[in-house]
Amino acid sequence: MKNLSGKQIVLGLSGGVACYKAAELCRALVKEGATVQVVMTDAAEHFITAVTMQALSGQPVYGSQWDTRQPNNMPHINLTREADAILVAPASADFLAKVAQGRADELLSLLCLARPAQRVPLLLAPAMNREMWAHPATQRNVAQLRADGAVVLDVGRGDQACGETGDGRMLEAHELCDELISFFAPKPLSGRRVLVTAGPTYEAIDPVRGITNRSSGKMGFAIARAAREAGAAVTLVAGPVHLPTPRGVHRVDVVSARDMQAAVAAAIAQADVFIATAAVADWRPAQSAEQKIKKDGSGQTPQLHFAENPDILAEVAQSERARSGALYCVGFAAESHDLLAHARAKRERKGVPLLVGNIGPATFGQDDNALLLVDAQGATELPRASKHELARQLIAEIDRRTPGVAGKS
Ligand code: C5P
Q1: CB count, 10 Å around CB of 70?
Q2: Which domains are delineated in the chain?
């Protein structure tokens, strides 16, 4: 099942260099299963052609309210009545000003005004020079648009086409696509705060060598994303992995198990749910050499001594808040065999209400997985699916098991 299957999206383009990203965005939306109807202003057509957008969306593009292709000659009505959302990307400063004022002198602003506002949400992805974005007039318009119920998305920061650097870039196509997917997701975790650990840890032997494991972090990142999509405020404590931060998630990067322990300790008081997916190293070298250990040609190998790492999950699970039920703890177990028996035993040992088992070698680095949920009532299988899909199912299962947690309505 694609993330936007069955959704009808009106993709509006107003004038701006960021129109080039709208082509990628259109492709991404179609790939996720959406039907995309492109509407372009005259200014947008100076930056990208309707031909490109028609080819990518597979639908004729509309650009004028006087278009005679509609039998009743009312594209502003016809294009909005069946839509699930209107997404304007890029939304220029001028376009924001027009919509904020309720003006409607061309098709795109006209259909924003004519849409059934209770049923068809309007999302705007601003794109402009940093001075234009910071100008009080633009900020006033953004505040007005939000007060009127539009969703004005964030802007990105960085190099701008004009050569300046600052706030005002349009979000990237994949970010906008994720925003839309997240927008449509139900919000059962709204008002709740979720802390997730993910990835491996790295335990230094010396400045250039260390001990780590094959955890890719993908499952934990997918869980952080799913929790965010479900409306939670999410903090993700990540070991060394090269994965993009899910949108809207607060990420804290750590290296070793002890770094992870400190980051969790700093954030745990503000969490209602703790999900420990990280593959924390059980041991670390007792001493990490300050200089690289050199091979001296004698054939002698260095003697490594190990110290046990803190068990972050077990510590958190024993805290007062976890034992009173104010904090719901979820552990993971990566096993190679006898999943149910090991997961049951680990649940007891860690003292957590929910333990999620998976077969480590079958999932490390992969995009899919299968999960076995073990709680006091028994075991539930979540059959093989993408990690994103499983993460959503797991979040729904956690939601079902946490009726009394603070913030849940
Ligand atoms: O002890 P083991 O690594 O098998 O348990 C796995 C679970 O415990 C995972 O949820 C993992 O994130 C957590 N864990 C931890 N700190 C450790 C070891 C594991 O939080 N030192």
Answers
A1: 14
A2: 8-184 (3.40.50.1950), 193-401 (3.40.50.10300)
What whole-number percentage of the chain has pLDDT above 90?
92
User: Quick one: how far is CA 180 from the chain centroid?
Assistant: 11
Rounded Cα gap, residues 32 and 77, in angstroms:
26
**β-pair type (210-211, 233-238):** unpaired
- In short, whether 313's Cβ falls inside 6 Å of ligand 1 is yes
Residues 6+ away with beta carbon under 8 Å from 195: 234, 235, 237, 264, 267, 268, 270, 271, 273, 274, 275
- Least Cα distance to 182 among 132, 146, 224 occurs for 224
Phi first, then psi: what are they for 160, rounded to 5°? -115, 155
| pLDDT of the residue at 359 | 86
**137 in Cβ contact with 97 (< 8 Å):** yes
Q: Which helix (H) or strand (E) holds 333?
A: strand 328-335
| Whole-number Å distance between alpha carbons of 333 and 360 | 8
Total H helices, total E strands in the chain: 15, 19
Q: What is the pLDDT of residue 363?
A: 82
Q: What's residue 364's pLDDT?
A: 81
215 CA from centroid of ligand 1 (Å): 12
279 alpha carbon to ligand 1 midpoint, in Å?
Answer: 6
Give 155's DSSP letter: -
Please give the number of the atom of ligand 1 that sits closest to the Cα of 332.
Answer: 10
Q: Which atom of ligand 1 is nearest to the CA of 330?
A: 10
Is the beta carbon of 257 within 6 A of some atom in ligand 1? yes
Verify whether ligand 1 is closer than 6 Å to residue 274 (CB atom): no
Ligand 1 pocket check for 311: Cβ under 6 Å: yes
237 in ligand 1 pocket by Cβ < 6 Å? no
Is 162 labeled as catalytic in the residue annotation?
yes
Ranges in the chain, pLDDT < 70: 403-409
